């Protein structure tokens, strides 16, 4: 699915044309291929789907009420998000509830029903990575991780030394408490295979607040395997 920005020549589009579907959401115009839906098959996909389903049900559950939902709507208004074009969009209260609680669920924290007053998380800083075939992958962060925050680590498949673009290929690897250094070799190899000398390993790291689910901007690194 891709987002699009229309021009003065074509101001809008809807429905299907040539195997693609044009539609519009809260964050703008969207174009996607027309496909028949399938159920997720990997364990990771099933877990994500189950988490979103449980979180969505919690929004309408006994632990929520109209006042709490209004507070989540207000929080979403105060923290707009940016799309790929840099335009700001306001999430719904439900979307903000899902976004933060999905992070908390990944860290093993229970559902947050009361909207936080503020959202903040420290920045990990520059990543110093060690990557050695076939399975050594460690890194340190130049910034101290604040108390009450974890490190969320994402990786992508190894790529050729001349390639620098990773894009949306990052996948979740691990969630770890603050430490002097982080070892993700076993988790990386389990998901992407053994490290190969001269290949590049992409890593992406965010701080995550263990109380609110707020995450920092990402720190990224591409390390050549030795």
Look up the CATH topology of the largest domain: Immunoglobulin-like
Q: Give the class-level CATH name of the largest domain.
A: Mainly Beta
Q: What about the largest sheet? A: 4 strands, antiparallel
**Distance between the ends:** 36 Å
**Overall form:** globular
| Number of separate domains | 3
Q: How much helix, percentage-wise, in residues?
A: 10-25%
CATH architecture of the largest domain: Sandwich
Label the structural class: alpha+beta
Strand content: 25-35%
User: What is the tally of helical segments?
Assistant: 4
What is the topology, as strand order, of the major beta sheet?
A: 1-4-3-2
**From the alpha-carbon coordinates, what is the Rg to the nearest angstrom?**
20 Å
Secondary-structure element order, N to C: EEEEHHEEHEEEEEHEE
The average pLDDT score comes to 88
* Low-confidence region ranges: none
What's the total number of strands? 13
Report on this structure.
It is a single chain. With 226 residues, this protein is an alpha+beta fold. The chain is built from 4 helices and 13 strands. The strands form 4 sheets. Strands 1-4-3-2 form a 4-stranded antiparallel sheet, with no helix packed on it. A hairpin with a 3-residue loop joins β7 (127-132) and β8. α2 packs across α3 (93-106). The longest helix is centred in the N-terminal third of the chain and has 17 residues, at 43-59. The protein starts with a strand and ends with a strand.
């Amino acid at each position: 699915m891709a987002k699009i920005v229309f021009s003065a020549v074509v101001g809008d589009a809807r429905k299907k044309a040539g195997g693609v579907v044009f539609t519009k959401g809260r964050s703008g115009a969207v174009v996607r291929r027309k496909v028949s839906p399938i159920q997720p098959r990997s364990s990771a996909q099933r877990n994500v789907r189950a988490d979103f389903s449980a979180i969505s049900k919690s929004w309408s559950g006994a632990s929520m009420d109209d006042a709490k939902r209004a507070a989540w709507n207000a929080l979403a208004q105060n923290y707009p998000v940016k799309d790929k074009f840099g335009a700001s969009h306001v999430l719904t209260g439900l979307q903000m509830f899902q976004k933060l609680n999905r992070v908390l669920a990944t860290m093993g924290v229970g559902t947050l029903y009361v909207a936080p007053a503020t959202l903040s998380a420290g920045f990990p800083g520059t990543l110093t990575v060690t990557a050695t075939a076939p399975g050594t992958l460690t890194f340190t962060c130049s910034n101290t991780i604040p108390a009450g925050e974890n490190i969320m680590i994402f990786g992508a498949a190894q790529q050729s030394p001349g390639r620098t673009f990773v894009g949306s290929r990052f996948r979740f690897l691990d969630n770890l408490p603050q430490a002097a250094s982080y070892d993700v070799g076993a988790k990386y190899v389990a998901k992407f295979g053994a490290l190969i000398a001269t290949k590049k390993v992409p890593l992406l790291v965010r701080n995550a607040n263990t109380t609110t689910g707020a995450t920092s901007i990402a720190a990224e690194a591409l390390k050549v395997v030795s």
